Amino acid sequence: MASPEPTVDDGYDVIIYGASLAGIMAALRLRLRGLSSLILEPTGHVGGIVAGGLVKSDTPNVPEALAGLTKTRFFDGIGAEYGLDGPEYRFEPKVAEKVARHLLDESKATVLLHQRIHGPDDVDVQGRRIRGVRTTQGWRRARFFVDASYEGDLMAAAGVPYTFGREPRAKYDEPFAGFQPVQAYRKHGFTPNTLYPVRDVPAMAAGEGDDKTQAYNFRGVLSTNADRIPFPKPDDYDPARYTYLGQLLRQRNIPGLSSIVTHTALLPNGKYQTNQALYFGFDLPGVNWDYPDGSWRRREEIIAEQVAWHQGQLYWLANDPSLPESFRADARTFGLPPDEFVDSPYGQGFPHALYIREARRMVGAQVLTQHDLLKPNNTKTHPVCCWKYGMDSHLVQYYPEGDDTVVGEGTLSGDETNPPVDLYQMPAEVLFPARGGIENITVSICFSASHVGYTSPRMEPNYGMLGEACGELAAQSLSTGRPVQEYDYPELAAALVEHGAVLSLPGLD
């Protein structure tokens, strides 16, 4: 696809795109096999979203499913930073980044920051093999590649088939697929019901597919300490954007910000995690639809709008005269933590990473669907880990209905719960392309799944375990010289288990 230009060839065995938890775990596994890695990180920070704000980790409903180096080296490592003997799943971002950097040092991986893939011209593919990636320092070459990014840009640029948005119900016969007006939230008492961020009523039938993606947000960290930074007023602040939030706060008689965030206390220093929280909150449905397959320029525009929404909302909660003074006073007991995100491009104390819940998804050797999350399809011939977490899709869009109703569509339950799943196994075949495709790539975060199939395993601890499997698949392919599609499963299973992976658990059958 690309014309080779001046090349910097350092003899790395594997290039990993993304210093996410998945990428770090892949690098660590490769180091344990005696292999070297070059990590190209598209942002200015390592650790992915767990170092960028998502510090209240969603763990599996069966605790034993979280295993391998992801548990013993990352989450146990975080626990050790707090003097604990075991894992910790609520933590400060600076601690997550510290552990991430330690593990990168342990893996002896070279990390280059601000290395973005923009399209096919940045990836050299010859036949069915990737040969190199263009960087700011010239072309970098390797024998194998791992896409551990949230966007899947390496995978896409290399010509690996992928999709985004929501498949129609008929595609995989998934009951929860496509447009879901029946399972939508319906909240009343909003007049007019067409203000920002409400969009037009979708002109489509239930079950039809679309290119829309569930909402993103920033997972902020708030501090109650004396040195907290007061919530800044954004340059483009518009209090009218929060009209519906104000109406919702009054409807629910919510007395202050404390009642929204204090259940998310982090260890140990007076800090709290933000999430969507309410029907109108820090999520911003509809703004992100262009993100998965968009240019980096378009993505930056989307990120900027999300920054304005989140920062403006915090300022509004602490200062808007439409709120009771008691509410505003409570909100002002919180601020941004000066010891977190110290070099964030969006201001000290504000997260440097947008939470990309779902972007591209590979169409690989096997597509994980809703059926694979439930018995009897939950067991696999070639498992690489186990998982169990409800089907969690945030809102995709708001649209008006009647005179005072705002519909929130995109969830799979119609309320604040997630449809349950059974304990299931993740198969190796979701981590690489189908036979006849690219032979030297594995994909850990944008793995092969339908939208509904993706809603359960899309959690950082699971990404870490999938990253471990991607590293072991790469190591085996390099050892044998065979395409990744021709892997030897007994050898892969033995390699995974050697460092603590759990491939089967009671309750699967």
TrEMBL record:
<keyword id="KW-0004">4Fe-4S</keyword>
<dbReference type="GO" id="GO:0016829">
    <property type="term" value="F:lyase activity"/>
</dbReference>
<keyword id="KW-0408">Iron</keyword>
<dbReference type="InterPro" id="IPR039650">
    <property type="entry name" value="HdrA-like"/>
</dbReference>
<dbReference type="GO" id="GO:0051539">
    <property type="term" value="F:4 iron, 4 sulfur cluster binding"/>
</dbReference>
<keyword id="KW-0479">Metal-binding</keyword>
<keyword id="KW-0560">Oxidoreductase</keyword>
<protein>
    <submittedName>
        <fullName>Xanthan lyase</fullName>
    </submittedName>
</protein>
<keyword id="KW-0456">Lyase</keyword>
<dbReference type="InterPro" id="IPR036188">
    <property type="entry name" value="FAD/NAD-bd_sf"/>
</dbReference>
<dbReference type="GO" id="GO:0046872">
    <property type="term" value="F:metal ion binding"/>
</dbReference>
<dbReference type="Pfam" id="PF12831">
    <property type="entry name" value="FAD_oxidored"/>
</dbReference>
<dbReference type="GO" id="GO:0016491">
    <property type="term" value="F:oxidoreductase activity"/>
</dbReference>
<keyword id="KW-0411">Iron-sulfur</keyword>
